Amino acid sequence: MAIQKILFASLLICSLIQSIHGAEKLRLFKELDKGALDVTTKPSREGPGVVLDAGKDTLNITWTLSSIGSKREAEFKIIKVKLCYAPPSQVDRPWRKTHDELFKDKTCPHKIIAKPYDKTLQSTTWTLERDIPTGTYFVRAYAVDAIGHEVAYGQSTDDAKKTNLFSVQAISGRHASLDIASICFSVFSVVALVVFFVNEKRKAKIEQSK
Amino acid sequence: MAHNHSNEDGSIGTSLHGVTAREQVFSFSVQEDGPSSQAVRSDDPTAKFALPVDSEHRAKVFKPLSFAKPHMRAFHLGWISFFTCFISTFAAAPLVPVIRDNLNLTKTDIGNAGVASVSGAIFSRLAMGAVCDLLGARYGTAFSLMLTAPAVFSMSFVADAGSYLAVRFMIGFCLATFVSCQYWTSVMFTGKIIGLVNGCAGGWGDMGGGVTQLLMPMVFHVIKLTGATPFTAWRFAFFIPGILQIVMGILVLTLGQDLPDGNLSTLQKSGQVSKDKFSKVFWFAVKNYRTWVLFMLYGFSMGVELTINNVISGYFYDRFNLTLHTAGIIAASFGMANFFARPFGGYASDVAARLFGMRGRLWILWILQTVGALFCIWLGRASSLPIAILAMMLFSIGTQAACGALFGVAPFVSRRSLGLISGLTGAGGNFGSGVTQLLFFSSSRFSTAEGLSLMGVMAVVCSLPVAFIHFPQWGSMFLRPSQDGEISKEEHYYGAEWTEEEKSLGLHEGSIKFAENSRSERGRKAMLADIPTPETGSPAHV
């Protein structure tokens, strides 16, 4: 009986947590003020078919209040600039999916910089970090209010996310020392086994011949 | 004549050591230390062993906290080797969020690699029986550990989806240690307790799939702290399971012993070797429809468990926005439940058999597997973290207990082909895992949550065939045992595996003794009506 009560209580608590959880997070992307900021990106190397190298190439990013502006400009406190996946890099990869619910949205996981809001033109030069995966990207800047909720945004590409994209090639992550260590351990493993095997067979032969 | 079938492998001429605690072991006919391929006539007193032993020098007592040579040492070396292999096979799973960024993998690539990781063992498990027979359990285990260690290290070289899949496939071969571990405990422990021993070895080894979900993110984190970038750190993290494998291999070779009396190569082989014909053993295994029912059932209990080991960490990471570390902890709880869940399943099966006979075993198997599958459906539908964790824990207990309960039924399906049937069942687990990963987790057609629920539905449906397992002497879930005087005898069922010619040569005597002892599967009512059969642990040494 006691167990049933405990189970029921825990189920009740779980569902309460669920409802609280749910109430908080229904902030949607389409409610944000679109195009409030003008964002431009200039990669260190440009040209047709150029692929930027993670860890080496840089992006020169600028942002400022756009001509369209925003009704909620007074709420802007911080501008968060993020690196975002373009649609070609989201195909067959549900962990990068675009959701309208801001909490679930996985389009822009890579943080570039966060600066307090300033009406004048802001810029930064950012080196592509070494954990950026291979893919096609654009840059988006969110205007965030005092409690950390997004209010408006601007991005370096159009609404369909087709223009002005750039490609990045990730580092391989391989290392010569790692390769060598790997080979050494592998060889040791096989050789040790063979040595044991041959040794025991030899001992058995000696025993038998006795 | 001596018939030697291994506990859990698919090869000929390997020792039969009964798999449940209830049957007696009759590997040899009447003589005390009868001829066999792997035991020796010993005149030494059995006092030299730390544990009480039977006439074959197999331990009669299971003391999990002891490391006494050779029995308990073999047990611990065996299950820890199996545990290490589980760690290696599923080491990639908790690191997939990093690996998929490094190698630019799609969901299809990840799913296919998951299928590959469990497919290799289908073949290596079937082959391991022969290896243990020829070279002994030590070398079987050591081969598995030390020859797949290079595959683990070669994660350093992986650069794209193709090489990732190939490496995971090759690492997967080491799951054959399941067979060598069960084989080793079978030669070391007597029939009465072998059920519990094997259940513990199997369950504690399976725990590796849970521990790896904790271990790998932790190792990854520590390596990152030393300054490595994520895309290098995950490669280096694979050195830990690799080194563990080498260490365990060396420990097995130096500290372990093939048989209670010594190592295979240094023991003198005495007496005639009488191995059963592989073709016969194979034919009787394949002809028995119950083998295939068990194949499918294990595919949806162990198979589901293997699949979850591959997908659950990524599922929690993606769906609930957890850190790699936290997702790993939750995923680990799934595998860790094996510590008690699988032995519990075996125990529940034994208790059900005591009360209701084989029919009880079958009902318990169906109930545990179906309940587990229902909780899997719930897991896929849970949209909040606490409910998902609760569903996952209940799901893990149900499914893992079903694995234990299944091996309470398997030993009775055949006596002649026990080893091969156990090996086929084990391979069925891997096969089921490959199928579920291919269907539900390898494309973007279903989200992972949908995949989990659909897998649960498929498991419920594929657990129904338990109802078709019918033993003429004991009945099935819905049918009573046969009323016919001849067919309702256990001897008839087990004797049917031998031709008249073989019977005239007395080859089937082991089966007859087994049949006598399996009368306990009639349940309490029938047992009270019968003359009680002797329940001594050692063979009938006259």
UniProtKB/TrEMBL annotation, chain A:
<dbReference type="InterPro" id="IPR016605">
    <property type="entry name" value="Transptr_NO3_Nar2"/>
</dbReference>
<keyword id="KW-1003">Cell membrane</keyword>
<dbReference type="GO" id="GO:0042128">
    <property type="term" value="P:nitrate assimilation"/>
</dbReference>
<keyword id="KW-0732">Signal</keyword>
<dbReference type="GO" id="GO:0005886">
    <property type="term" value="C:plasma membrane"/>
</dbReference>
<keyword id="KW-0812">Transmembrane</keyword>
<protein>
    <recommendedName>
        <fullName>High-affinity nitrate transporter</fullName>
    </recommendedName>
</protein>
<dbReference type="GO" id="GO:0010167">
    <property type="term" value="P:response to nitrate"/>
</dbReference>
<keyword id="KW-1133">Transmembrane helix</keyword>
<feature type="signal peptide">
    <location>
        <begin position="1"/>
        <end position="22"/>
    </location>
</feature>
<dbReference type="Pfam" id="PF16974">
    <property type="entry name" value="NAR2"/>
</dbReference>
<keyword id="KW-0534">Nitrate assimilation</keyword>
<comment type="function">
    <text>Involved in nitrate transport.</text>
</comment>
<dbReference type="GO" id="GO:0015112">
    <property type="term" value="F:nitrate transmembrane transporter activity"/>
</dbReference>
<keyword id="KW-0472">Membrane</keyword>
<feature type="transmembrane region" description="Helical">
    <location>
        <begin position="180"/>
        <end position="198"/>
    </location>
</feature>
<comment type="similarity">
    <text>Belongs to the NAR2 family.</text>
</comment>
Automatic annotation (TrEMBL), chain B:
<dbReference type="GO" id="GO:0015112">
    <property type="term" value="F:nitrate transmembrane transporter activity"/>
</dbReference>
<feature type="transmembrane region" description="Helical">
    <location>
        <begin position="196"/>
        <end position="216"/>
    </location>
</feature>
<keyword id="KW-0534">Nitrate assimilation</keyword>
<feature type="transmembrane region" description="Helical">
    <location>
        <begin position="292"/>
        <end position="316"/>
    </location>
</feature>
<protein>
    <submittedName>
        <fullName>MFS transporter superfamily</fullName>
    </submittedName>
</protein>
<feature type="transmembrane region" description="Helical">
    <location>
        <begin position="322"/>
        <end position="341"/>
    </location>
</feature>
<feature type="transmembrane region" description="Helical">
    <location>
        <begin position="165"/>
        <end position="184"/>
    </location>
</feature>
<feature type="transmembrane region" description="Helical">
    <location>
        <begin position="77"/>
        <end position="98"/>
    </location>
</feature>
<dbReference type="Pfam" id="PF07690">
    <property type="entry name" value="MFS_1"/>
</dbReference>
<feature type="transmembrane region" description="Helical">
    <location>
        <begin position="139"/>
        <end position="159"/>
    </location>
</feature>
<feature type="transmembrane region" description="Helical">
    <location>
        <begin position="387"/>
        <end position="413"/>
    </location>
</feature>
<keyword id="KW-0812">Transmembrane</keyword>
<feature type="transmembrane region" description="Helical">
    <location>
        <begin position="420"/>
        <end position="440"/>
    </location>
</feature>
<dbReference type="GO" id="GO:0016020">
    <property type="term" value="C:membrane"/>
</dbReference>
<dbReference type="GO" id="GO:0042128">
    <property type="term" value="P:nitrate assimilation"/>
</dbReference>
<feature type="transmembrane region" description="Helical">
    <location>
        <begin position="236"/>
        <end position="255"/>
    </location>
</feature>
<dbReference type="InterPro" id="IPR011701">
    <property type="entry name" value="MFS"/>
</dbReference>
<dbReference type="InterPro" id="IPR044772">
    <property type="entry name" value="NO3_transporter"/>
</dbReference>
<keyword id="KW-0472">Membrane</keyword>
<feature type="domain" description="Major facilitator superfamily (MFS) profile">
    <location>
        <begin position="74"/>
        <end position="474"/>
    </location>
</feature>
<feature type="transmembrane region" description="Helical">
    <location>
        <begin position="362"/>
        <end position="381"/>
    </location>
</feature>
<dbReference type="InterPro" id="IPR020846">
    <property type="entry name" value="MFS_dom"/>
</dbReference>
